[in-house]
Every structure is written in C-alpha cells, then in structure tokens.
What does this fold into?
Amino acid sequence: MTPDMLITDMARAARAALPQLAAAATVQKAAAITAAAAAIRAAAPALLAASAADVAAARASGMSEALIDRLALDAARIEGIACGLDTVAALPDPVGEVIKTWAQPNGLNFRRVRVPLGVIGIIYEARPGVTADAAALCLMAGNACLLRGGSEAARANRVLLDCVALGLKSAGLPDAAVQMVPAGDRALVGAMLAAHGLIDIIIPRGGKGLVARVQAEARVPVLAHLDGINHVYVDASADADTALAIVVNSKLRRTAVCGSMETLLIDRAAPPALAAHVLSGLIDAGCAVRGDAGILALDARATPATAHDFDTEYLDAIASAALVDGVDGAIAHIARHGSAHTDAIVAADAAVADRFLAAVDSAIVLWNASTQFADGGEFGFGAEIGIATGRLHARGPVALEGLTIYKTLVSGSGQTRP
It folds into this structure.
C-alpha cells in the first residue's frame, strides 16, 4: 500500500469515528482517559524497558544528550504522564459550551457554541509523552487523531498507544479515534501534509527542520511554532536574588525545552551590583554566555556574541546576553530578534512591568516568573498538544479549547429577509 493510500484509509476511518466522538458524553470520554492513565501506570515496567531501548539506540546513533533528555522516560515521568491524563479527564468538557449569545431586533436569537475541530494530525519527534497527551486532549475535545511519532521513540510510543487503546475499548469508543502512523517512512509525513479534506489541521512538535518542512509543504492548516527564542529582561527595579533565581531557572532547569530562555537582557541603568550578580550567577550555574560589549565588561568569562547569536535557539547551556536601554530597549530587542513564543520581565516597578506585558507581542508574556512555565500543565490544562505562536484560532499552549472551533446556532420564528 502506498503512503497516500495508507493515510487516506486511516483518515477516512478517523472521520467515520467523528460522529460518535462528537456525541460522546463527558463521562464516557473521561472514563476512557482515566482508564488509559491506569493502563499506563500498570505498564510502567514495559514502558521503562521500551524507553531504555529507545535511548540506547538514540545514543548509538549520536543523538545529543539534550534531545535524549526529551526522549527518556523514568518512573517520575511515567507517573507525570498518567497524572496529566487524570487532570485532562477532570477538566470541563469544551464541546457544546455556549461561548456567546445575542439577539437581533428582528427576533433572531444566536448561540455560538464550541464544536470539535475534526481529524487532527500530530507529527512529533523524541517526545513519547506527546502520544498520551495528544490522545487525551483530542479525545476530550471530541476529535479523532492520527499520531506520527519519531522513529527514535517508536518502542515507547507503541506501549503508550496500546494503553490508550485499552482506555477507548473500556469506554466503548471506536479504535479509530486514536491511530498511530508508522514511523520511519518520511513519505507518510508528506502524505499527511497533502491530505486536504481528510485531515483538518496539522500540529507539529519537534525540531526546527520538522516544523519548517510542515509549514512549507502542508496543504492543511498548521498550528505550530518554529523557534523558541525566549528572553528574560531584568529591569533596574528588580530584586537581585529574585532576578538570579528566575534567570537561572529559565535557562538551566531543562535547556532542551521550547520554553528555555535563550537571551538575557539587562537594563543598562541597573545598579552594577544587580547586573553582575545576575550575570555571574548564571555563569556560575554552568551556562556559557555570549554577550555584547556591556556584558563582557561585567564578567570576563563571557565571550563575544555575534549578531547570529541573538537569533539562535541553543537548546543547550548557552545564552546570549545584552544590555538594553530600559524596558523600551528590551521591547525593541525582542521585536527584532524574538520568535513570539515566551518572554519575561523581572521588575519590582509595576508600571514598567505593565508596559512590557502590553507591548511584547508573544504568545506568553510573564512578570516575575520563569519562562519554563510555558507549558500546558503549568497553565492548569493538564497537558498540551503544542505551543502555537501564529495567528490562527489558538495561541500559546494548545489544550482543550484550542482543539475546538465554533459554530453559530440561529433560532427564529419564521423570519424571512426582506
């Protein structure tokens, strides 16, 4: 069977399942997700073994340790996946929610209600947890999904899919609601991207190469972000210890996640002790800093930055750094070099913070908090299917609401239009 034929068959099966999914009661969808979480906990030994095999193969192929960190599962991460599913199961069901009501003078009454998007294609790399998160979120929002995980996580993905299938079966929902596209054949990705009319939206999660390919080739709408060039701006009004803690956590908690800080900006008017405290503390914590002339003058361990550094998503223990002329300088720098993902300000001055929050045009903007909170679980969504930075219907962590669209129901009493 050709890749196009396989994707067509899978997408048609998924589309055939949509009426049952859209009509499923909240309790039925929640039961399927809760049962999948229980199956994941029961399958922990198998998941650990599968992940160990995936990691060994990835390491043998030369994959970077930063990417292996995304790939690897341990007991805590497996429990985190299961807990995320439990959280999704307990969230309010968005399907059928009335967003807005209004009436016209002619007596027509309008209701705007949430409905599922339809068949969702998710393409991802080295993130086995996405298999469970995407399945749960799509299911609770009444969607069917085609999952195409990377070959580097194929073993763990298979175990997780089996757990989801057990959940669907136990709740009486169709198997075609969640399907796994075979990994390893890049032509299958192309077939998904070309499946206009069969797949309603594509959500890629992976490296820049994958996302760029999806955005360039897709004939289906795409919900994604390309880069996570995230900034933390330390204002002159910031508390030194608070600023250091946020900067170090933003960069080094997990360097390979898309919410990691890539550029540190410091107010040129900040007290020298504050600027030096933050910069030296970041370097002491193990981060290599590439800075402009002002940064180099603060700490001799920093190395000169090139213009390219400020446009780079390192996903490693490396950060670019610059001095800027106050909050307006930070806003201008972010507008020039940012990727509209996640940016933060550390400041005690509320007026300065409000200026930053209003002017920075990113999907997530934080005040006195780490950029590592750019995560659906931390937003209270239970999980996320990705972070969107574009201008479609959803922006930021995409969870249940982002996996729905709306339709308008109009009630009349015989009105005709003159």
Remarks:
- The longest helix spans residues 3-23.
- The mean pLDDT is 95.
